[in-house]
Every structure is written in C-alpha cells, then in structure tokens.
From TrEMBL:
This is STAS domain-containing protein. Residues 15-101 form the STAS domain. One of its GO terms (molecular function) is anti-sigma factor antagonist activity. It comes from Heliomicrobium gestii. Signal peptide: none annotated. InterPro entries: STAS_dom, STAS_dom_sf. SUPFAM superfamilies: SpoIIaa-like. It holds the Pfam family STAS.
Length: 101
C-alpha cells in the first residue's frame, strides 16, 4: 500500500494514496504501528483520505485497529479529506463515535 507519513511538531499525518481494503489492510496496520513506535511524543495522528475511493470492512477494521493502538499511546486520531461515500461508510460502521470517545 502506498502511504506517505509526515510529522510536524507533535502532529503526524498518514496520507493514503489508494483504497483501504483487504489487499492493503495488513500493510496499513504494519506501517502505522511502525510510525507510532518511531514517534512516541506524537499527540495527534491525522489520516488524510482524499485519495481513498473505496474502503471495505477489512479496511475499516484496519483503521480501527490503528486507532486503538494510537489511543493506547495517548495519541488522538482524526480523519480528513474523505469523500461523502467514505463518510457514509464510516458513519454506518460507527467510526466517528469511536473517534469521539
């Protein structure tokens, strides 16, 4: 999976360059866990999803897994740049509720 990571101050960004689905979920989790481990002082992680046109249940599960790991490290997660279609899927599954907890 193609992703770009950046860190500005205590805010990290994961910019996805393709869909998050069964084929890319494992790489997504692995790479984000590594990014979190390398940046222990990070306070916020933003997932930039403007290039994501499709996210299946495996992709949503991968996103939720990374959010849980980030929370355990005291990192707040946010989603940005998602399309209305991706927003509908995330709302249906309850991702925004988890982010607000």
């Amino acid at each position: 999976m193609e992703m770009q990571f950046s860190l500005q101050g205590k805010t990290g960004m994961c910019r996805l360059a393709e869909d998050l689905d069964m084929q890319s979920a494992e790489d997504f989790v692995h790479d984000n866990k590594a990014f979190l481990a390398q940046n222990l002082g990070m306070k916020e992680l933003v997932f930039e999803l403007s290039a994501v046109e499709f996210m299946d249940s495996t992709g949503v599960g991968a996103l939720m897994q990374v959010i849980r790991v980030a929370r355990e490290q005291g990192v707040v997660c946010r989603l940005a740049g998602y399309s209305p279609e991706i927003q509908d899927a995330l709302e249906l599954i309850g991702v925004f509720g988890v982010l607000e907890e």
